[in-house]
């Protein structure tokens, strides 16, 4: 999932936890189930890069697939 096609991150530089998106989908595990939301990837600090360099990426508009 790449949220920003104008700023591609090379495969070898992408954060392995968010696949370069900079954001991860979080859903609480409570009953009744609540709506999930996007949270900033803690591994890359929202940059989408394994080296944590660059600007924070834009949050995706829709839930994952």
Keywords:
single chain; 65 residues; mainly beta; 2 strands
Question: If you had to describe this structure to a student in words, what would you say it looks like?
Answer:
By secondary structure, this protein is an all-beta fold. The protein contains no helices and two strands. It has strands at about 25, 35-40. A two-stranded antiparallel ribbon has the order 1-2. It is elongated, with a radius of gyration of 12 Å.
Could you provide a short overview of the structure?
The chain contains no helices and 2 strands. The protein is mainly β and 65 residues long. It is elongated.
Reconstruct the topology from this structure.
Blueprint: E1 23-26, E2 37-40
Antiparallel strand pairs: 1-2
Q: What is the rounded distance between the termini?
A: 9 Å
Mean pLDDT: 84
Number of helices: 0
Shape descriptor reads elongated
Main structural class: mainly beta
In the sheet with the most strands, the strands line up as 1-2
Oligomer: single chain
């Amino acid at each position: 999932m790449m949220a920003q096609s104008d700023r591609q991150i090379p495969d070898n530089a992408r954060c392995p936890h968010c696949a370069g998106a900079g954001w991860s989908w979080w859903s609480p595990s409570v009953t009744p189930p609540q709506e999930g939301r996007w949270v900033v990837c803690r591994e890359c600090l929202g940059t989408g890069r394994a080296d944590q360099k660059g600007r924070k990426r834009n949050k995706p508009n829709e839930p994952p697939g």
